[in-house]
Amino acid sequence: MRHVVIFVVIMSVIGSYQLFELPLTLLSESYGYGANDAGLTLITYLNYNAFRCGDLGLGSAVGWVVAMNHFCDSLIQIWLAASRED
Q1: How far is CA 1 from CA 35, 52, 70, 77, 82, in A?
Q2: DSSP one-letter code for 48
């Protein structure tokens, strides 16, 4: 059962980082950003820089930071779960 819980936690954390369509739908008048950028997430920031401003380099860099963050978070969660098994 422990492995299933670890998998669900990792997938939930990754899913929470990739929040894009909810702020875009709810805050459609401001392109998903809201007042004072209250709805700004990493993925909406990536979308803004890469596709609205045309800065594909910055958009790619943000994408890589998000991917490496997912990787590191997953490794930390797996390490913590393995250390508690002993």
Answers
A1: 43, 45, 23, 15, 13
A2: I
Stated length of the chain: 86
CB atoms within 10 A of CB 59: 19
Burial class (CB in 10 A: 0-12, 13-18, 19+), 8: exposed
Q: What is the pLDDT of residues 5-56, one digit of tens each?
A: 888 988 998 888 888 888 888 887 776 677 888 888 888 889 888 998 999 9
How would you class 52 by CB atoms within 10 Å of its CB: exposed for 0-12, middle for 13-18, buried for 19 or more? exposed
